[in-house]
């Protein structure tokens, strides 16, 4: 047994020697540390700002604003002339229709009111419970002063007045003196004879303001111009306007500015027949005489009526004088139409300059009027 075990040990030793010989007698090196491997955290780029996205105004939904409604509040418009006059009365009627549609007023029109009937008509609508009664002529102001104290819950508005009476009579008007000034500037720049004129009907405070503005505007751009005013004394007789215009042309006037209601057509017809230029008023009157009406000086009565509506809906329709002028967008020039290429660019540039000076207050018409009266 002992021999057998020795034999086994011998065999195991022999095997181990053979294995070492097979390995080529190489030395087995001691294990070394694993080579250092420089590992870096993967680079992480700093967060960049979100790409700028240009948002155009048209892509941005406008906030929904709930528009106030008049809920059928009744408003009456009273005029002395016809709403088909293509000027003074037609422009205010357009404004009435606009606020009826946009704000929900219930509107009524009374046109061609005779002077002796004015107070009776005013009282008729007041008794009927109208919330607002508008008189589209300076003549209504004195009547409102008499009637309004009896109807404290009704607002009486004169659209060509310059004064008011507490607590419920106010005046709101497109600036007549600015309108006249712009017309005078156009006439002063475009006249060839150096003589221009303003032709109207009956004398009134707004007409006087327009007349003063016309003279000041003409002389502002052309100190050598002769600016004349002729009043026929009648707002219902276009024949007189026609005759007055012909007389002016006979005396060398080559540009006329006219105001009023339907009577203004008398001046436009005479100007067209005599071959001189005319300046329209209140609305764009080029369609009445396309080869004669050089430009029109607009009084934006739709804007004026919207001002009334907004003030009513905001409980701010109080006794005061509200002047709707060029800076508010209520007085401006119409397009030139067929005269676009006939009016020199320097004239257009000068008129743009005058308009900006009116808007900014650089042209002080009140101060100029004081000097004019002196």
Number of domains: 2
Please give the CATH class of the largest domain.
Alpha Beta
Amino-to-carboxy terminus distance:
157 Å
What structural class results from the helix and strand content? alpha/beta
* Shape, principal axes of CA atoms: globular
- With strands numbered from the N-terminus, the spatial order across the biggest sheet is 2-1-3-4-5-11
User: In total, how many beta strands?
Assistant: 12
Biggest sheet: strands, sense, closure? 6 strands, parallel
CATH architecture of the largest domain: 3-Layer(aba) Sandwich
User: Percent of residues in beta strands?
Assistant: 15-25%
- Poorly predicted runs: 1-58
Radius of gyration: 43 Å
Number of helices: 11
**What is the CATH superfamily classification of the largest domain?**
Response regulator
Please state the average pLDDT score.
85
Q: H/E element string?
A: HEHEHEHEEHEHEHEHEEHEEHH
And the CATH topology of the largest domain?
Answer: Rossmann fold
Question: Top keywords for this entry?
Answer:
single chain, 374 residues, alpha/beta, Rossmann fold, 2 domains, six-stranded parallel beta sheet, six-stranded mixed beta sheet, disordered N terminus
Question: What does this protein look like?
Answer:
- By secondary structure, this protein is α/β, with parallel strands linked by helices.
- The longest helix has 21 residues, at 2-22.
- The chain has helices at residues 2-22, 88-103, 118-127, 140-147, 176-190, 205-221, 238-250, 264-274, 301-313, 345-360, 365-373; strands at 74-78, 106-110, 132-135, 155-158, 169-174, 195-200, 226-231, 255-258, 277-282, 293-299, 321-324, 331-333.
- It folds into two domains: 74-174, Rossmann fold (3-Layer(aba) Sandwich); 176-298 and 331-373, Rossmann fold, CATH 3.40.50.
- The chain has a six-stranded parallel sheet with strand order 2-1-3-4-5-11, with helices on both faces. The chain has a six-stranded mixed sheet with strand order 7-6-8-9-10-12, sandwiched between helices.
- The protein starts with a helix and ends with a helix.
- It is globular and about 55 Å long.
- Mean pLDDT is 85; it is low at 1-58.
